[in-house]
């Protein structure tokens, strides 16, 4: 016969609570044992929102600071002439070092983007720290040794030091890879943290702008504070050894800071929202996510059997919890969707044809300036590589900031931060300036034309013997280069979403390595051919004959071809936008 419970021995029997509910309760209530009360939900949510916002802001600031230092490879032209005059490298050898840096900057970016999306940004920041320290440390050691051997001890060039050139190549491979890691970690953090905000263009533009600005301040700092002293006590050219040591220390420290401060907030929410969007569009079968079984899944994308996804070792049920598995499953499906989008390829080629000439220009800016003045005058008399690296950096920075701000104000914006795939289904809001909108593609085409004008202005010979006009070239090319690097990742996030941004942008961003290499080799061949008929070297040393070049013949053909290449890029971009099955026809908001 049951007995009634008294007030003293009465117990409360709660219904069973599963682990997810328990986790939710533990998050939603902050129990105070002293007052036997729970903190109100609204107050706790506000506190959590403030904490998340603080993390976003700190990550944005640190990402911008990291990018502000990461673009050190852009100032290569500042010390490239020293590789010729002090280390006795030929133009082909100088470009070999530059190309090694450019290839390692772009080729690993798809792999690093894949790692960034699936593992996180902190490992990439740590990797950049190690590679920067190794690369610039080794380059400083090699430069110091060869400089002393050739110019102090008077040892003949070459014998006993054949290995040094390969080590210098390796050093700049480390520098390029480190730049890639720090850059992709910085912009990926900002893209994912601010993908929902109406100022996502500006948030993404900040680290991109910092990267462009790094060339300006590093070149000015190096030339003004880390310089050699002439025999008469006046300030000479940059001290390359001290500059490399400075970069090694600075970038090692910035990589360590980024390891602890770059964080993506609510990344799992991004994945859940992406799943919902893709299910609504019919590209994913939601039932496949509800249960994993040995038989695989019926569909994973528009053209991809889910069995292919299930064969990925990252996605095997034994490899991790459901959240991680679901994230990898969705990101791989989105990668395949990205690769099968026919508009992605002309867009990627347009990026290749714009950035390739820009990269080759900035890598060879120093030697181009040297061709503008007669051999009897000083090297680049009336101007300097540091000045024009700064001009390039300033115009690139202004373009990046303008793009971020103006596209937020003037361009239409989709309501979603995920992939736009379904024709004519993309709901969008107009630009903040009502009834007036300019597509981001128009901005990119405009700055592409500006870049081509700068290249053709140089190719025409208008700057020859008028080095004071060179700012027109460096300014226009810098503006076009900066705008392209700002708009391309922004367009990727808007059309193909933010959750898989690093992978998608990495696939596109690895292509300019081909353009940089190709145009670097073309410039070297034209320069070297021109050097054979340019007369005695500027140094006056017969041993340097055939190394230096003076005159329009040293560069004109190269930059005519580069200008035409940028025009081709504009045509490809216009086709992706307005062509058959293009973004406009599919109703994609861009």
From TrEMBL:
<keyword id="KW-1133">Transmembrane helix</keyword>
<protein>
    <recommendedName>
        <fullName>Probable transporter MCH1</fullName>
    </recommendedName>
</protein>
<dbReference type="InterPro" id="IPR011701">
    <property type="entry name" value="MFS"/>
</dbReference>
<comment type="similarity">
    <text>Belongs to the major facilitator superfamily.</text>
</comment>
<feature type="region of interest" description="Disordered">
    <location>
        <begin position="1"/>
        <end position="22"/>
    </location>
</feature>
<feature type="transmembrane region" description="Helical">
    <location>
        <begin position="557"/>
        <end position="577"/>
    </location>
</feature>
<feature type="transmembrane region" description="Helical">
    <location>
        <begin position="92"/>
        <end position="109"/>
    </location>
</feature>
<keyword id="KW-0472">Membrane</keyword>
<feature type="transmembrane region" description="Helical">
    <location>
        <begin position="505"/>
        <end position="526"/>
    </location>
</feature>
<dbReference type="GO" id="GO:0022857">
    <property type="term" value="F:transmembrane transporter activity"/>
</dbReference>
<feature type="transmembrane region" description="Helical">
    <location>
        <begin position="240"/>
        <end position="262"/>
    </location>
</feature>
<keyword id="KW-0813">Transport</keyword>
<keyword id="KW-0926">Vacuole</keyword>
<dbReference type="GO" id="GO:0000329">
    <property type="term" value="C:fungal-type vacuole membrane"/>
</dbReference>
<feature type="transmembrane region" description="Helical">
    <location>
        <begin position="470"/>
        <end position="498"/>
    </location>
</feature>
<feature type="transmembrane region" description="Helical">
    <location>
        <begin position="121"/>
        <end position="143"/>
    </location>
</feature>
<feature type="transmembrane region" description="Helical">
    <location>
        <begin position="199"/>
        <end position="220"/>
    </location>
</feature>
<dbReference type="Pfam" id="PF07690">
    <property type="entry name" value="MFS_1"/>
</dbReference>
<feature type="transmembrane region" description="Helical">
    <location>
        <begin position="163"/>
        <end position="187"/>
    </location>
</feature>
<feature type="transmembrane region" description="Helical">
    <location>
        <begin position="437"/>
        <end position="458"/>
    </location>
</feature>
<keyword id="KW-0812">Transmembrane</keyword>
<feature type="transmembrane region" description="Helical">
    <location>
        <begin position="54"/>
        <end position="80"/>
    </location>
</feature>
<dbReference type="InterPro" id="IPR036259">
    <property type="entry name" value="MFS_trans_sf"/>
</dbReference>
